[in-house]
Amino acid sequence: MASHTLLRSCEQGGAKLTLETVPVVGCWDRLRIEQVVTNLLTNAALYGEGRPVRVSVAGDATQARLVVEDRGPGIALEDQGRLFEQFVRGDNAHGKGGLGLGLYISRRIVEAHGGRIVLCSALGWARTMRMFTWEPLRCGRAGASRGFGSGR
Predict the structure, then answer these.
(1) What is the distance in angstroms between the CA of the first residue and the CA of the last residue of the chain?
(2) Is the pLDDT score of 65 beyond 90?
(3) What angle do CA 109, 10, 65 make, to 5 degrees?
(4) What is the crossing angle of helices 30-47 and 102-112, to 10°?
(5) pLDDT at position 9, please?
(6) For position 150, what pLDDT does the model report?
(7) Domain 2-137 maps to which CATH number in 3.30.565.10, 1.10.443.10, 3.40.50.10490, 3.40.50.720?
(8) Do 141 and 14 meet the contact criterion of CB atoms below 8 Å apart?
(9) CA of 110: how far to CAs of 5, 40, 136, in Å?
């Protein structure tokens, strides 16, 4: 289950995880969405400097929304776009491991689900938010599963 993976990812980085979820009905490729959530949470845990991480899931009949928020040091505006490119890591990535593929892969998965992933931050700003929204896929598509945020 994604929530257990998320909790482990945050705990490994020393961050406390807060979940705020409501059931969101739709059809998604569950494994791919879990991969996105894990990538975003791992990123928040690694770069959030051990500060609390908040995850919220919400949506309606037309879209779903996931927000992963940490209280890390922030990311300069000029660096934000390139973080979603292949093999690109933040300037403070030294000694943190990884290949610079997590956000790139996440963006590709979210776009394949008809959504977008956005980074809202500023250098020195106390919050970094990674958010994506997507329209629910038609049920019956191969690999799609119903529900998100409800523990199903």
Answers:
(1) 8
(2) no
(3) 40
(4) 150
(5) 60
(6) 43
(7) 3.30.565.10
(8) no
(9) 19, 12, 11
CA pair distance 116, 131, nearest whole angstrom:
8
Q: What sign has the CA pseudo-torsion 63, 78, 124, 88? A: positive
| Confidence at residue 129, expressed as pLDDT on a 0 to 100 scale | 63
Tell me the per-residue pLDDT of 78-94, one tens digit each, with 9 for 90 and over.
Answer: 887 888 888 776 655 55
CA 104 to chain centre: 11
Return the beta strands (E) in the chain as ranges. 17-21, 24-29, 53-59, 64-70, 116-120, 128-134, 144-148
CA distance 8 to 23: 22
In the chain, % helix, strand, coil (3-state, to 5) comes to 30, 30, 40
Confidence of residue 152 (pLDDT cuts 50, 70, 90): very low
122: which 2 tokens? Answer: 């500023």
